[in-house]
Amino acid sequence: MSKNLVIVESPAKAKTIQKYLGKDFEVKSSFGHIRDLPKKGMGIDLATFSPDYEVSADKKKLVTELKAAVKKADMVWLASDEDREGEAIAWHLAEELKLKPENRKRIVFHEITKNAILKSIENPRDIDQNLVNAQQARRVLDRIVGFEMSPVLWKKVKPGLSAGRVQSVAVRLIVEREKEIREFVPKASFKVEGVFLNKTEQEISAKLKKDFQKEEEAEQFLELSKTTEFKVLNVETKPGTRSASAPFTTSTLQQEASSRLGYNVTNTMRLAQRLYEEGYITYMRTDSVNLSQEAIEGAKKQIISEYGAEYSSPRNYTTKSASAQEAHEAIRPTDFAVKSIGDAQLNKLYQLIYRRTLASQMANAKIEKTVIEIGNSKLPQNFEAQGEVIVFDGFLKAYGIVKTEDDDEENNEKLLPKVSVGEALDYKKIIATEKFTRPSARYTEAGLVRKLEELGIGRPSTYAPTIQTIQNREYVDKREIEPQIREVIKISLAKDKIKKEVLDEKFGGDKNKFVPTDIGEVVNDFLTDNFKEILDYGFTARVEESFDEIANGDQKWKEMMTSFYSKFHPRIEEVEENADRATGERLLGVDPQTGKNVHARIGRFGAMVQIGEADDEEKPIFASLMTGQNIATITLEEALELFRLPFDLKEFDGQAVSVGVGRFGPYVKWGETFISIPKGEDPLSVDQARAEEIINEKKKADAPIATYKGEPVTKGTGRFGPFIKYQSIFVNVPKRYDFDNLSQSDINELIDAKLEKEANRYIQQWEKEKISIENGRWGPFIKFGKAMFKIPKKKDDTKYDAEELKEVSLDEVKKWITDQDPKAFAEKKKPAAKKSTAKKTTTVKKTVAKKPAAKK
After folding, report:
1. Which stretches within 743-809 are classed as H helix?
2. Which positions ≥6 away from 250 have C-beta within 8 Å?
3. How far apart are CA 667 and CA 826, in angstroms?
4. Which of 625, 605, 621 is closest to 613 using CA atoms?
5. Interatomic CA distance for residues 78 and 9, integer angstroms
6. What does the pLDDT read at residue 176?
7. Strand 4-8, strand 75-78: pairing
8. End-to-end distance of the chain based on CA atoms, in angstroms?
9. Which residue of 40, 85, 405, 808 has the lowest C-beta tally within 10 Å?
10. Cβ neighbourhood burial of 438 (10 Å; 0-12, 13-18, 19+)
11. Are 424 and 230 in contact (CB under 8 A)?
């Protein structure tokens, strides 16, 4: 047995490290934290702020295995990640496995390479309790905030809601941006652009240096330009440079992967984690732009070899953030000789990191910028054309140029033809276009990360989970915003003729940007009104600074918690006692038919409108808001239209037809079939003819495309992509097939494979008890209802094979389940019988949209 046991937090990391260590080392994974605060209850003694950690049920078997491995080892090496979370994992392992200081060593490394691993073993240390305490402080403070603020939301807003320290601030940013957009009043002006021709008929595009505020001014300028002889008034050429950006930090990697690759932050971090664990890049959670001397030398060698000595310009960068840890490194390749890797998705991110790091060590690009002024002394303003030439590409050779979301779309500088001062130019066309100012853009994931970092809120490890959490809680989403249409005036001068047009322009539309939901806005407004300090950007940043001070040993974590809680808890009690309920209610006006008030507000099932008051003798009636509508902007007219839904149309092919809105959006119901109305189409505009058209399209889509053993096969597109359906079996169609042109042999192949897989799925099945032993991707497992359980090893510590599992009794399987979940077969309490109430004389039907059945 190995004398040395190394414990890391992930199986992939364990596999990579095992390659570099000899037979004297055994590497095992803890699969993340082995213990944490309990899932139920706060798990914190509020008198002392001592956490009550426990080993979760799914980790008990693993802990037993690790304890057994510890007994056989002379030395245990704790090799979890180098950040605070990794330090806490090492500390929890030491505590739970009862490791004595003389029998344990803590090792850290920035990269998983042979040199780094061997060097870390030569330079071990003990667990850094300051880093552990910083992690505990974050975990405990966030648990207290969540556990004490969430019940206030249940009482004052809606049951089932939750609040978090960093997440609530992120939602606040998105809500405030949305309110800013709603309140924005666009201002119009006329921008003038001209296309001029030199003597060799080469085009020069130029912009007038000043906009006109009024249409008359723009038109007068074009009239004046008709008879004007345009000349080159000035030509100015200036040398310039462009320098490379620093190597990646967690934040800048997330931003660049979003703009260049279209990856969301969660996907970026998942891929970066794999690259790190497989030894390709350095640690991916860092706020440092520092590079080691070894990395600088490695990049220099690669640049000279690939591009030449003139492209090399070694340099190191310093981090502006005071909290950044310069001992850490930026994200970089571990070996510059590795230019690409096999896995296509991993390679895209690796290439981005590789090229960014190389570029950071390359010479500046040299450019020559040319500005040509065009005009005439008779005109009130002159035109200006700008262009640039790259004289030496430098770092651009490796990294190229990418536009950011903040770049002006119109600033496309082009190469300009040669002209001389005094040269006459003819105008080809001059156009004055009405342009409107635009509000600040909604946040993309990358933009939100940039803003959080700028405000000092959160740290590299928190950005991805924060953004995921606010979406999971349905406080924000990325729904598509349909554009509005407005008229713009365009005045053109060409061939001495002026032409005026009124054009339609789309504006305000958005895709893949964060928009607050109604419940997100209501929760944010309630929290900002009642917990100003917790939602304050400065306060949240100061808390992060306190965690940094704890990590540096400059502050005691329990003293920090005592100071925080002494102000926080009294505020919780005050708000719980005195704050009004929050529903986001807006009075929209009066219903002309009943004379009753119409309100928009949050109800039990989400955003809705109601006619009438709760205390009226006749109960109010309700209608759910449609996708794209929200409480803050819905009008009285739009609200009243909702009460038309659902509405009935005439029968079609002997089946009833109706139109409504449900959980999955607007639909046409034909018999018992729910058919989605196309995106962006108003369900209230669907008449009999359009409904029949939608039904016929559905019938056509559902028509059999082939047969299999005499039975029809249909196809469709569902939540998980394209599929074919045979009997009641759905078969996903992989990308390698041409879904629009599936042949009979394709269909036979897909269904054969699916049926074979299904036949091999069950090793044993007890349908009545909803228990089965099934073959899974990583071997056999037990399924009980929707829950999955592991199959234990035999007494001789070997695994059961499929043949042995066929002989296992139901009682034995039940025992395996209860060993992992003692309450698995406990009888569920029956709900208390409702008390009978006297029948009311009048009932009013609530007009709530029906929910369509879930689709494949």
Report:
1. 744-759, 802-805
2. 269, 284, 285, 286, 287, 331, 460, 461, 463
3. 41
4. 621
5. 9
6. 96
7. parallel
8. 52
9. 40
10. exposed
11. yes
- One DSSP character per residue, 129-184 reads HHHHHHHHHHHHHHHHHHHHHHHHHHHHT-TT----HHHHHHHHHHHHHHHHHHH-
Is the link from the previous residue into 646 a cis peptide, with omega within 30 of 0?
yes
- The answer, yes or no, to whether residue 332 has pLDDT greater than 90, is yes
C-alpha dist (Å) from residue 222 to 378, 412, 434, 497, 599: 12, 24, 14, 10, 52
φ, ψ dihedrals at 534, nearest 5°: -60, -35
Separation CA 439–CA 507 (nearest Å): 11
Whole-angstrom Cα distance, residue 304 to residue 311? 7
Going by the DSSP 8-state scheme, the letter that residue 278 receives in this structure is T
For the entire predicted model, the pTM comes to 0.77
Write the CA distances from 43 to 49, 93, 143, 239, integer angstroms: 10, 19, 9, 64
Using N-to-C axis directions, what is the helix angle for 11-20 and 265-277, rounded to 10°?
20
C-alpha distance from residue 250 to each of 116, 278, 344, 350, 462 (Å):
21, 18, 21, 14, 10
Distance CA 286, CA 206 (A): 45
- The predicted-structure confidence for 470-511, as pLDDT tens digits, reads as follows 999 999 999 888 899 999 999 999 988 999 999 999 999 999
Residues in the chain: 856
User: Which residue reads 């055994």 in tokens?
Assistant: 26
The residue type at 431: I
Residue 701's alpha-carbon distances to 118, 420, 617, 659, 696, in angstroms, are 62, 65, 49, 20, 8
How many Å apart are CA 710 and CA 395, to the nearest integer?
A: 64
The 3 state secondary structure assigned to 720-753 is CEEEEEECCEEEECCCCCCHHHCCHHHHHHHHHH
Q: Can you point out the beta strands (E) in 591-679?
A: 597-603, 606-611, 621-624, 647-652, 655-662, 665-670, 673-676
Within a 10 A sphere around the Cβ of 153, how many other Cβ atoms? 20
**CA nearest to 782, candidates 752, 819, 755:** 819
From the list 719, 747, 744, 745, the residue with the least C-alpha distance to 733 is: 747
* pLDDT range class, residue 828, cuts 50, 70, 90: low
Q: At residue 12, does pLDDT exceed 90?
A: no
Q: Are 600 and 639 in contact (CB under 8 A)?
A: yes
Place of tokens 């279209």: 262
For residue 741, the tally of other CB atoms under 10 A from its CB is: 7
Q: How many Cα atoms occupy the beta-carbon half-sphere of 599 within 13 Å?
A: 14
Average pLDDT, the chain: 88
Nearest-angstrom CA–CA distance, 810 and 808: 7
* Residues forming a β-bridge with 729: 726
Sheet holding 25-29, edge to edge: 25-29, 4-8, 75-78, 104-106
Q: What percent of the chain has pLDDT over 70?
A: 94
Strand 25-29, strand 4-8: pairing: parallel
Q: List residues with catalytic annotation.
A: 283
Of 75-79, 461-465, 588-592, 770-774, the one with minimum mean pLDDT is: 461-465
